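Lay summary. Proteins are chains of building blocks that fold into shapes, and those shapes determine what they do. In this project we predict the shape from the chain. Here is one chain we studied, written as its sequence of building blocks.
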Amino acid sequence: MVTLASHRVTTDELVDHIRATYRHPDDPTRDHPRMGGWQRIIRNSGVHTRYWSRPLPEATRPTSVGHRAQVAFGDALQHAEDAAQRALQEAGLQPGDIDCIVTSHTTSWAVPNLDVHLVDRLGLRPTVARLPLSTLACSGGVHALGRALMFAQYRPGSRVLVGLR
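And here is the predicted shape, written in a compact code that computers can read:
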């Protein structure tokens, strides 16, 4: 089950937004001196479309790190809960059927982490095995899938729910 956040942002939109937001410090009619480098990094990433939980202007609005992290975690939690409920429904499973939950997200740091909240919000058994991989950043998705596979191999017949963001 793959779900995408609701706000689609293309590379061109992102570059245009950065160009409009960050102008030359001495002459606002000119590009920022580092614009060429920023543009190369963004375009060379190979990512043409990004899906964000918030519209581009809202997601990039200046705010405190604490507020940004709080909003990002709330969005990640809601998205993970919605996707997990859809996955359970499509698989014909009940929350109590899940033996392990593996989570990975890079949007924020939170204690308790995404896995703890999902156990409660999805109604998973309190004894479900939990494996949060949030500190692995972008590589966490690959690690989460690998750990889920390992759990399933070591416990044949087990059902593993994986949440990535």
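What the prediction tells us: The longest helix spans residues 65-91.
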